[in-house]
Specification:
The structure holds 2 protein chains of 2 kinds. Chain A is mainly alpha-helical. Chain A is 72% helix and 0% strand. The two termini of chain A are 27 Å apart. In chain B, 44% of the residues are buried. Chain B is built from 8 helices and 10 strands. Classes of the chains: A mainly alpha, B alpha/beta.
């Protein structure tokens, strides 16, 4: 009862609790939607494969792509799944056996929502197999094999999480797999599919999967046990300080000061690193849209996609200015630096990254010159106006940021407010209108020019806009300091 | 140097600070004492424009802190952890502040040399980020950084707390040293010995009001002890 009342108070006395409850409900609805969509998709995949692929068994085809499903799953887990390691520090002195605590932690991770994967993806597929001529026992064996594989991935994540290098190794492995598939006869996907094919034919092969799972568990157990001291694996990792001089920024003189600090912040803290990595992935967002012919005629979708390709960093980073600096905001507010300079150096960083993204996006010309034109126009809009809109949105965000803690799934939405939601209008709708209106009434070229021109004008009058945003930031100064103090 | 007029801070109905008028001269070493909740940190936060006053105004060097940002050039402070950037090394942090205060690298080296004893070999060249230092050592970094560029006004909240005894004495020696005589120094402390040693004017706050404001005399410590022991 006591605990319940504490939870109640925690919820309803939290700042912005109305928004938080709304968000929880929204997340719930969105999750139900996605679960429904996945269940539906995977239950029709079998039927589709059955009709479309005539020369191979549908199950064999599906097993052949399992490797890529596993990859996708690991990447999603890497970004979103929070492992329960750090919570055990308080248990370490209590009379529990080490073995018990490690087992407890590992078993607790099994009850993560991410391990519902076999139920959402594989089970509907398995059920639709049942309507064909597979035996119930065959299907069950196949599904159990996948369930065990998912748990292996769950434990593998502990090891990947220890070091970002493992994550990049994983990406490299994926690239290698794809390259092998394209340029040689070796199809790793097929190889991985073989044991799953085998388990359908003879369920005794399940023993192999069970051994793999036990082996994985044992390996992780020893891995965790080695790090089981306050000063080793459990402690917040102490890193040796190195690098971070950024001498090449010196030519900027005084302007380099905050910029250099921001770069250090991004490189040395978990949360901003996550965001930087994510904003890099935005670059590939266009591949979803530009490759599909149905979107080619939907101009607004093309503008959206173009904005996202170069706007990832601005959107993810800018929305958390000044929250990035929340842990030392009082220092910045009393030191010899003006608000305007502070904002301009944030602008510089975002504009620079947008420009780099624009250059990196040049290969999109493969999909046509109009695609490149839309990306370039979008980049100018992002640089000139997107940056300030993001900075304004960040001002409304009054939740202090824990820099060196990994974000939980959907944590990005926790500092959400209705006004921020309303900002989607200038962020997304404005550029679409800027393009679409002239394009509709005059010509597509007029659309590109208006969209890019709005951005260029904003860059020219950067100083004026900075003055305006500075006034807004100053008005909110005391509220922001108070909120960050919590 | 610093002028407070009709300064008050209310949270809903509760008044946490109410000072009719207070002036602090250039070079004065100003000590603020009072029990928890007396309003010491509130007063310092108002001086630095970190919280908005309910009424009245604060001026530093005749610049009203709520109206202009120019006072920041001459003022430095160390109030709490929120004055440290925890992902920097101490060297980087000092360099950051030095650049903001327009101090060259050489000048910074000379400046830091005088803290050799205070730092006790545990601050510089450690190749560690501030977040991995102990509370006491973090405090030393923050305190030293507040004096970079010889600001005219330095505000320190509880500078002696969390420091080991040797460091407290070394800090006291630094604060009373000759090159800080021109510095307008504002410190708050629960340690009556230290505050009377360092300051030449003691102000006693109680429930947000100034109830005692005296130049330091040989009797000050005794009077304060009498007050705090409830006699």
């Amino acid at each position: 009862m006591n605990l319940f009342s504490l939870q109640w108070k925690e919820t309803f006395r939290a700042p912005q609790w109305e928004a938080k409850v709304t968000i929880k409900i929204l997340i719930g609805l969105v999750s139900i939607y996605f679960i429904g969509a996945f269940v539906f998709l995977s239950s029709v995949v079998y039927t589709i494969l059955n009709k479309e692929v005539l020369d191979r068994e549908p199950l064999e085809v599906f097993n052949g792509i399992l490797l890529f499903i596993f990859f996708a799953e690991l990447v999603i887990r890497f970004f979103l799944q929070q492992l329960p390691v750090t919570n055990i520090q308080s248990l370490i002195l209590l009379p529990f056996k080490k073995r018990q605590i490690i087992n407890h932690v590992m078993l607790r991770s099994v009850f993560s929502a991410f391990n519902l994967f076999p139920f959402i993806i594989y089970l509907p597929f398995a059920i639709s197999m049942y309507r064909d001529d597979y035996l119930g026992s065959q299907i069950f064996a196949w599904w159990l094999a996948l369930l065990m594989s998912t748990l292996c991935l769950n434990f593998l994540l502990y090891i990947i999480n220890k070091n970002n290098a493992y994550f990049f190794a994983l990406l490299g492995f994926l690239a290698g797999t794809i390259a092998l598939d394209i340029y040689t006869e070796i199809d790793l996907g097929k190889l991985v599919g073989i044991p799953f094919d085998a388990v359908v034919k003879n369920s005794e092969y399940l023993l192999g999967f069970a051994l793999l799972l036990v082996g994985m568990y044992a390996f992780l157990f020893t891995f965790l046990k080695k790090g089981f001291y306050m000063d080793a694996g459990l402690a917040q990792k102490k890193t040796r300080a190195r690098g971070g001089e950024f001498k090449m920024l010196n030519f900027l003189g005084e302007d380099a000061l905050i910029l250099r600090n921001d770069l250090r912040m991004i490189m040395r803290n978990v949360r901003p690193r996550q965001i930087a990595l994510m904003s890099f992935l935005f670059l590939f967002y266009g591949l979803v849209f530009f490759t599909q012919d149905i979107y080619r005629d939907m101009e607004y979708v093309m503008v959206f996609a173009g904005l996202f390709v170069t706007g990832g960093f601005t959107m993810t980073f800018g929305n958390y200015v000044p929250a990035w600096d929340s842990s030392y905001y009082k220092l910045l507010m009393t030191q010899n630096i003006s608000y305007k300079k502070y904002l301009l150096s944030k602008w510089n960083l975002m504009a620079f990254v947008t420009a780099v993204s624009m250059v990196l996006a040049i290969p999109y010309v493969y999909f046509g010159w109009d695609v490149l034109a839309i990306i370039v126009a979008g980049a100018f809009f992002n640089m000139g106006l997107g940056t300030w809109i993001a900075l304004f949105g960040g001002l409304l965000n009054k939740t202090p940021m824990k820099l060196n803690v990994k974000a939980k799934a959907f944590e990005n939405t926790q500092s959400f407010s209705v006004t921020q939601f309303a900002l989607i209008i200038p962020k997304m709708v404005l550029p679409v209108l800027l393009y679409w209106l002239p394009s509709y009434f005059i010509s597509p070229i007029a659309g590109f020019i208006t969209l890019a021109g709005a951005g260029v004008l904003a860059i020219i009058f950067r100083d004026k806009i900075a003055n305006g945003v500075t006034v807004l930031y100053k008005k909110q100064k005391h509220e922001t300091i108070e909120a960050f103090n919590k | 140097m610093i002028q407070l007029e009709n300064l008050s801070k209310k949270y809903d109905e509760a008044t946490v600070l109410n000072v009719a008028s207070l002036g602090i001269d250039k070079g004065e070493h100003f000590g603020l004492v009072g029990n928890n909740g007396a309003g010491k940190t509130t007063l310092f936060s108002l001086l630095l424009d970190l919280i908005r006053p309910s009424s009245g105004k604060v001026s530093i060097n005749s610049i009203e802190v709520a109206k202009s940002e120019d006072w920041k050039k001459d003022t430095a402070a160390f109030i709490d952890d929120a004055f440290l950037i925890d992902y920097l090394t101490p060297e980087e942090y000092f360099a950051f502040v030095a650049q903001l205060r327009k101090i060259s690298t050489d000048e910074l080296q000379t400046f830091l040399a005088q803290f050799e004893e205070f730092f006790n070999g545990e601050i510089l060249d450690q190749k560690k980020y501030l977040r991995d230092f102990s509370k006491g050592n973090q405090k030393k970094v923050g305190l030293a950084a507040a004096f970079i560029g010889s600001p005219e006004v330095v505000i320190l909240d509880e500078p002696f707390a969390n420091l080991d005894p040797s460091s407290q004495i070394r800090l006291k020696n630094f604060l009373t040293a000759e090159n800080n005589l021109n510095c307008t120094l504002l410190i708050s402390s629960h340690d009556l010995n230290h505050v009377t040693d360092v300051c030449d004017r003691i102000v006693l706050l109680e429930k947000g009001a100034v109830i005692k404001d005296t130049p330091k005399s040989p009797e000050t410590l005794k009077e304060l002890e009498a007050y705090f022991s409830g006699q």
